[in-house]
Write a structure and sequence with these properties.
Pectate Lyase C-like; 4 domains; 20-stranded parallel sheet; twelve-stranded parallel sheet; 42% strand
Length: 655
């Protein structure tokens, strides 16, 4: 039977009460309104609610409240508020249909409020937020209102994955900062989004379509508009009124009869530097910079601009207005360009010691069904194709104009060379470089890893042997078959190896030598090599302070008096210095030190008794520090003491 004190039982009971009381709380059910929430908790609407008053159907006056409407309708009479939240924090509203109020959702002076998976309809304000912070709307539909969602003097808030539909004013941001509007669709509104007097507003990944104005900025700065589609808005895609400056606007699709209205000449930035990314429209090499400028007829600036160097961008900038220029407007690329360079293997170099092309190979491109969609050869000279040392080298390439696809199969053939087949990705225009091996020459791919840590070994000595044990000579200037190489990834490949039987060795400092089995090379092979670290087990008591021995685990080899450097026995033996190891044992070093001091003392005083006295002192010290065992110390003290006494007595007699 287990017994516990009353005090311990009381403490346990109190802790249990708090644990269970803080993790489980009973829900409160709402079946009619008006209803006022004055305490924290979960509140569940159990049926449709109809409100005919002019105040608030569900009023929240407490913090830490969750309201679950379970997709029931909260219906008003075009007055008052459906759900009103005042001076509260951490309020979350789920799955509510709130229709026909002055304000379907009204949030005042509150923080950390979330409205999600809800429908706000046929009110003056679908949602009205004032003097609040950290308010979020997620997957909300706001439709047929005068104002879809209005944030007034509200900061650090967001609207995500929502739909703003058929409102007089879609989203309005008044004197609000640090606002994110992302992945939201705004259709058939007077304004898709209007921002007045704000900064640090991020508008990302939205679609503003068939509104009067897609976007409208006034007194807005330091904000970002990117990855949006502004299409078929009847007045302007983007209206920029007064005091709008320092905003970054890039990778957007503008397809309206009138794309941009600018009413002042303050500086805004309409592109970023060229970089990889997902283009907002069309195929390409996968670069982004500025915007795509089109119109409903498909003959806008980006649709028809020259792109002579196939770099995804129009050859000339696009001027929107004074101090508003897109220097990297996206060009129309409906098809992708597949560029292919075919190079001889890395060991066959030209007179400059650089890679050289395979002359006029046959290239066939097939789709995923095996149908030939293009063919040709490398007949286009590309200047400055690659860098070889200080040289800029040209090359010959083939270019194919293809539809974007998940992949194509490229087949490259040439007499005297091995036919190569490779899959290439073709979502965007891309350049590929293939090494075509000569017939009866193959690649041995070798990856070298530490057997214990599975980390790559960065420096090895690699040698290739014929089956009879003869080293394979270097066949080409840069085909080194026995050499020390370094590679951060642990990759040490052989190129241009003729058909034959071989084995290879891999050596690395601190590891056991690896020797492969003999193999017959008739195709490219891949080898994974795991090197075993060389492990030397130190022997405590051999008088040598070896690696991994310390004063604590082996005091007889690593004495405490003076720090004796630890010796890597294996390394010394490999270097041919093994015969010196006995001189570096603590026992030998301390005895030599004792003799040295004893001789110095005797020379200075010219008294043999001083020599013996110094030796006696060292013997005592060595005994207490563990250098001498007790039995040896006892014998040495008896002998030295006897001689010391006799010498001292002789001195007195002589005197």
């Amino acid at each position: 039977m287990i017994c516990m004190s009353k005090k311990f039982a009381l403490i346990l009971g109190i802790l249990s009460f708090f644990i269970f009381s803080t993790n489980t709380r009973a829900a409160t059910y709402i079946s009619s309104c008006p209803y006022t929430i004055t305490s924290s908790g979960d509140y569940i609407v159990t049926n449709n609610l109809y409100y005919s008053g002019s105040e608030t159907c569900i009023a929240v006056l407490a913090s830490n409240v969750n309201i679950y409407c379970q997709n029931y309708l909260i219906n008003g009479n075009e007055m008052g508020r459906g759900i009103g939240i005042v001076a509260s924090a951490h309020i979350y509203v789920y799955n509510c249909y709130v229709w026909n109020f002055e304000k379907s959702i009204d949030i005042q002076q509150s923080t950390y409020v979330g409205i999600r998976d809800s429908d706000l309809k046929s009110s003056v304000y679908g949602a009205y937020v004032e003097s609040s912070n950290n308010v979020g709307f997620y997957n909300v539909i706001s439709e047929d209102n005068t104002y879809g969602i209005l944030l007034n003097n509200t900061n650090s808030s967001s609207i995500q994955n929502s739909t703003i539909l058929r409102n007089s004013h879609g989203i309005e941001l008044w004197e609000s900062n640090i606002i994110s509007v992302s992945y939201t669709d705004a259709y058939y509104n007077s304004f898709g989004l209007l921002a007045y007097s704000g900064n640090n507003i991020d508008i990302v990944g939205n679609r503003f379509s068939r509104n009067d104005y897609g976007l409208r900025f006034q007194v807005v700065s330091s904000s970002t508009v990117r990855d949006n589609k502004l299409e078929e808005n009847t007045q302007y895609g983007f209206a920029i009124l007064n005091n709008v400056q320092g905003n970054r606007i890039y990778n957007n699709l503008f397809r309206n009869n009138n794309n941009v209205l600018i009413m002042d000449s303050l500086l805004n930035y309409w592109n970023i530097t060229k970089q990889t990314g997902t283009r907002i429209y069309g195929a390409g090499y996968g670069y982004i910079g500025g915007n795509y400028w089109s119109n409903p007829n498909g003959n806008g600036y980006s649709d028809i601009c020259p792109n002579t160097n196939y770099d995804d961008f129009c050859d000339s900038p696009y001027t929107i207005g004074t101090n508003n220029i897109d220097y990297l407007p996206l060009a129309s690329v409906s098809n992708i360009t597949l560029e292919i360079q075919v190079t001889q293997e890395r060991c066959h170099l030209d007179a400059d010691g650089c890679e050289q092309d395979v002359p006029s190979p046959t290239i066939i491109v097939k789709d995923i069904y095996g149908n030939v969609v293009a063919s040709g050869t490398t007949n286009i000279q590309k200047p400055d194709c690659y860098t070889c040392g200080a040289l800029k080298k040209s090359c010959y390439v083939a270019r194919f104009n293809l539809l974007p696809a998940e992949r194509y199969l490229v087949v490259i053939s040439k007499s005297g060379y091995t036919t190569l087949e490779a899959n290439v990705s073709a979502y965007y225009s891309s350049s590929y470089k293939f090494y075509l091996p000569r017939e009866n020459e193959f690649t041995i791919g070798i990856k070298v890893m530490d057997k214990n840590t599975l980390q790559p070994i960065t420096t090895v000595t690699r040698c290739l042997f014929y089956q009879n044990g003869t080293k394979v000579p270097d066949l080409y200037p840069n085909a080194l078959f026995c050499a020390q190489l370094s590679n951060d990834g642990g990759r040490y490949d052989y190129y241009c190896v003729p058909r034959d039987s071989y084995y290879f060795t891999i050596q690395a400092y601190g590891y056991q030598t690896y020797t492969s089995d003999v193999f017959y090379l008739s195709s490219d092979v891949e080898k994974m090599v795991y090197l075993t670290p060389s492990v030397y087990a130190p022997v405590c008591g051999n008088g040598i302070c070896e690696a991994n021995e310390t004063v604590q685990n082996c005091p007889q080899d690593c004495a405490q008096m003076v720090v004796i450097p630890q010796i890597n026995v294996t390394e010394w033996q490999e270097l041919g210095y093994g015969w010196l190891l006995p001189l570096f044992t603590p026992f030998a070093i301390y005895n030599m030190m004792m003799i040295f001091f004893a001789i110095i003392g005797g020379v200075i005083t010219r008294e043999p008794s001083v020599v013996l006295g110094i030796i006696l002192v060292f013997i005592v010290i060595f005994t207490f520090t563990g250098i001498y065992p007790w039995w040896l110390s006892f014998v040495l003290i008896i002998i030295a003491g006897f001689l010391f006494v006799r010498l001292v007595g002789h001195i007195f007699v002589r005197g």
